[in-house]
Amino acid sequence: MTHFDLAIIGSGSGNSLITPDWDDKKVAVIDGGTFGGTCLNVGCIPTKMYVYPAQLAAAASDAARLGVDVTLDKVHWRDIRDRIFTRIDAISTGGRRYRAEELDNVTLYDSHVRFVSEHALETEDGQRITADQIVVAAGSRPVLPNIPGMDLPQVHTSDTVMRIPDLPERILIIGGGYIAAEFGFVFSAFGAKVTMAARSGPLLRALDATVSERFTEAVSKQWDVRLDTEVTSLMENPDGSVRASLEGPDGASTLDTDLVLVATGRVPNTDRLGIEAAGFDLRPDGRLAVDEFQRLLKGGKPVEGVWGLGDVSSDFQLKHVANHEARTVAHNLVHPENLKASDHRFVPAAVFSSPQIASVGMTEEEACRDTEARGVELALAVQEYGSTAYGWAMEDTTGFVKLLAEKESGKLLGAHIMGHEASMLIQPLIQAMSFGLDAASMASGQYWIHPALTEVVENALLSLKTGTGD
Ligand SMILES: Cc1cc2nc3c(=O)[nH]c(=O)nc-3n(C[C@H](O)[C@H](O)[C@H](O)COP(=O)(O)OP(=O)(O)OC[C@H]3O[C@@H](n4cnc5c(N)ncnc54)[C@H](O)[C@@H]3O)c2cc1C
Ligand SMILES: NC(=O)c1ccc[n+]([C@@H]2O[C@H](COP(=O)([O-])OP(=O)(O)OC[C@H]3O[C@@H](n4cnc5c(N)ncnc54)[C@H](O)[C@@H]3O)[C@@H](O)[C@H]2O)c1
């Protein structure tokens, strides 16, 4: 048995916990998968490294609208793939080497571990690790629906699809959430024929209804979207392609495809952690229960010295949230007398598809419920990109900013943007919500560069006509 001051399960966001505070202490980092976790190896970073060239490829077909003929000659899938993973694999390998070989106080275990009690873990080969403090940062993994044929080699998840040898001619994407939306765009921009089977319509239905409806409408022009459609089985054809059986609003049909991407959500990795041996509380969806200080709970009470962060315990499966929670834990590990709480009030998210989407705060439905319950009036504005000078320059017909605020106070409740660089345009709105800036002061208390696209945000704020306006 080896005892540590700190043991961290998971080298994704967990890896950032080893601050200089631990230089003189014994730390174990334990990871049974690829060093660096999801975001680096199979998540945010490689996907966005595909999204950017996909935007370049897609620009070719859009340019003619503006009087510029651009032809897309070829997408070099292998070159793109190798450029991406040469960079990423080196970061993962270098990070692993640093932890494994270059720090005297850190021991790296390349193994899955399970809890055997509150403060004790066991590796796959039976080594016991105990620690004064344990952080569970074990992430999540793709969930595979129970469909016959899921085990065919042509069936991929986001874990494997980015490393395939060649761009498929036809791809069937099962699911209508974030991963489906991003890969739908990448593969379609690269020239594959994309079909998306979404069990329930419209796509991205967890987002604000206007976004979800208008996104579904926009991408239905780019790829074949089948709403309210279940994939009931997958079978291999003699030529190596796959025949999918679909059950949709018009009844049963079949579809031949070369590759299937399953994007039907992710489950927290708690089922492989021996949680029952330690008795920690789980949420109904399998996440570890934590309090606002990121302490694991047992019987509803915080457990001394055991913490959870990121996808394994969070309400949000987002890297910036995992990073925020890691900063909370990093502080709390060394300041037990002055615990800091995580702040989940204004968590933004972006979907890097085309059109791009970004949102923060309440959806319209949530804001209606919230304002009604509090007896205050709701102000709502939708401003089209096409109503601003930059929107004219782009001949934009799909982009918009939707804002929700309390009418009298001008307090912003939600912001939803769809269109060019939505993930950047939303940042001042996140800032306003985080620091309590009301809509009218934000609109008129600063210059907005003319004729930048940010004017669409300025005009949306002005359109809200909230009580604090002139
Ligand atoms: C395709 C895709 C695209 C994404 N894009 C974005 C994006 O653009 N923006 C965004 O904010 N988020 C994005 N996300 C989500 C983001 O990647 C995750 O929220 C984030 O990486 C979670 O970090 P984590 O530290 O909680 O877990 P991880 O980074 O997954 O780390 C968990 C680690 O724990 C290890 N582990 C698990 N169980 C055990 C065990 N029992 N013993 C030992 N080790 C174990 C795993 O091997 C893994 O390395 C994306 C996700 C995917 C899949
Ligand atoms: N840009 C980003 O921030 C980003 C990008 C990718 C992933 N992520 C994170 O990863 C998480 C997982 O992504 P995801 O797209 O897999 O999940 P998701 O929750 O966004 O979407 C899952 C989709 O699958 C559908 N579905 C579920 N079971 C199904 C079944 N049996 N058959 C058909 N459809 C089914 C759901 O209706 C939903 O449309 C996201 O929720 C997000 O938090 C973030």
UniProtKB/TrEMBL annotation:
The active site is at H450 (proton acceptor). One of its GO terms (biological process) is 2-oxoglutarate metabolic process. Keywords: Disulfide bond, FAD, Flavoprotein, NAD, Nucleotide-binding, Oxidoreductase, Redox-active center. It is an enzyme of class 1 (oxidoreductase). Pfam families: Pyr_redox_2, Pyr_redox_dim. FAD binds at K48, D311. Disulfide bonds join C39-C44. Binds 1 FAD per subunit. NAD(+) binds at G175, G176, G177, Y178, I179, A180, A181, E182, G265. Residues 347-460 form the Pyridine nucleotide-disulphide oxidoreductase dimerisation domain. Residues 4-326 form the FAD/NAD(P)-binding domain. This is Mycothione reductase. The lineage of its organism: Bacteria, Bacillati, Actinomycetota, Actinomycetes, Micrococcales.
